[in-house]
Amino acid sequence: MEQWKMTNLHPKLKDVTERIEARSAETRAAYLDLIRSRKPSGFAREKLADGNLAHASAGCAVIDKTQLLGASWPNIGIITAYNDMLSAHAPYEHYPEIIRDAARKVNATAQVAGGVPAMCDGVTQGQEGMELSLFSRDVIALASAVSLSHDMFDGALHLGICDKIVPGLMIAALRFGWLPHVFVPGGPMPSGLPNPEKQRIRQEYALGKVGRDALLKAESESYHSPGTCTFYGTANSNQMLMEVMGLHLPGAAFENPGTPLREALTRASVERAVALTIKRDYTPMGEMIDAKSWVNALVGLMATGGSTNHALHIPAMAASSGYQITLEDFEDVSSVTPLLCRIYPNGPADVNHFQAAGGMSFVMRELLDAGLMNAEAKGVMGPIAEHAKEPWLDGGKLAFRDAPMTSGDLDIVRPVSDPFQAEGGLRMLQGPLGRGVIKVSSVKQDRRVITAPARVFDSQEALKEAFKAGELDRDVVAVVRFQGPAANGMPELHALSPALGALQDKGFRVALVTDGRMSGASGKIPAAIHVGPEAARGGPLARVQDGDVITLDAETGRLDVDIDPTVFEAREPAQFRPNISGQGLGRELFSAFRDNADRPESGGSLFDFFLPGSLRA
């Protein structure tokens, strides 16, 4: 810790932190007033009436009921995203038993406060159900709030991993910021079919070279057992964020399920949550997580080449703690943060290979050494510098040791002195077509500037049909519009990756421009995503026509259309025609979300934690 105290934080990161604090002064103050007004004077259930408490303890084991009624031990609430359809969340089935036992051993009780939905983007990619995906984040936040609203709890443990689940849990945890919160991961599945081989077979299927049997075989060999998918998409980017923000125990993210070390980390997470409660070392999450924490999150995202979905999730999560984060913050942090990792889709390795090569402890130590991470930000183990360690079992007991000093594989993770590239993996784009982001960490250098005629689509299905018909066998910028939150819930367009990738592999210069989003696992096609204002709300993409020459320039951050601005503005915008979108599979229940969603660069959220109208479209 002393060595990092003496390291000056990079001046650009200091500037970004200070401007977030200045921009958010009023909203952060209002947030702190809220959580400080709820600061407990004793255990939460002490203020409940006898009838309330009787209901809350009726179903407990006798030992827990005695302590709950006596109010002499802290009580920890468990928010679980368990279901056995998601491989990542299947291991959570037996966690409550482990947690209750671990709590009793440190004189505490634990109860499952509630369950939250957890949908799998892998199951819904390219399907109608994907239109609920982004909004499921806010549903998870709402369900978590209902669970914690019983006001029985002195701290909380959050069991969640995948795409919208961790952000939803985070939003709710921060709104209950007078409590301590610890996030408890489940770990990745063991490595299966190498990711580049999986991608090759997907593209061959798109080209009609192999059949569905070969595709299903490859997919099943990739996703084959309980645990998180092993590519570095949104789920594993979530786990990285929890590490750099100090909401996990150090090194907890990428240990496989079912190992003695995984169970030891889970039990220790319970012990830590108990230790942070009101009558012990009280550490409310809402005060622990501050602007330094959010800038560290941005640094971690850039240094590891994390998911573009976090250009949506980080602003939404930060807003729940009173902070306003903009695309300019992403851009400026990326400009000084070197890319240290090559994990699929940015390289052939998966997260298990990354963990073996040094993992998050190595990355965090490198960033701290270089003044690229604020060591004074706080986590559940204390200053974030204390989180740059790796867990191990010493005689069967959990211990933490210093991060490795060298990378175990320079093709996977590198030191700051020898990065894969000097800047981070995410950049802002802006111009007459709007503002958005692009992930460049896996886009080859010669593909970062694309100029080509536009082909405009109002759905991803229309693009697929044009590809199958051979209509896209040329240089093309595919514009896929009416894919934002207000139109259809902003589904991921990852199902377009095989087609666009196949065109690029044929030698054509190809790019995607969309007001929708791509999967965290997408990458090799230059894609301007989250472009706003979205077309359904009259954004510029509604005026683009077939044949317009578009330039996507990831080097200068420009998104241009080669047409006289006066002519472009005079065009009648295409009108969004929802037809069957919004009906069936429960989509009609989410009309209020579509009508009231925030703009994508502010998170696309239903919630407005700021001053009325301050960030809405």
Automatic annotation (TrEMBL):
[4Fe-4S] cluster binds at C162, C229. Its EC number is 4.2.1.12. It comes from the Bacteria. The keyword Iron-sulfur applies. It catalyses: 6-phospho-D-gluconate = 2-dehydro-3-deoxy-6-phospho-D-gluconate + H2O. Residues 411-603 form the Dihydroxy-acid/6-phosphogluconate dehydratase C-terminal domain. Residues 74-383 form the Dihydroxy-acid/6-phosphogluconate dehydratase N-terminal domain. PROSITE patterns: ILVD_EDD_1, ILVD_EDD_2. Keywords: 4Fe-4S, Carbohydrate metabolism, Gluconate utilization, Iron, Iron-sulfur, Lyase, Metal-binding. Pathway: Carbohydrate metabolism; Entner-Doudoroff pathway. Binds 1 [4Fe-4S] cluster. The keyword Lyase applies. Its cofactor is [4Fe-4S] cluster. InterPro entries: 6-phosphgluc_deHydtase, Dihydro-acid_dehy_C, DiOHA_6PGluconate_deHydtase_CS, ILV_EDD_C, ILV_EDD_N, IlvD/EDD_N. HAMAP family: Edd (MF_02094). Belongs to the IlvD/Edd family. Catalyzes the dehydration of 6-phospho-D-gluconate to 2-dehydro-3-deoxy-6-phospho-D-gluconate. This is Phosphogluconate dehydratase. It comes from Henriciella pelagia.
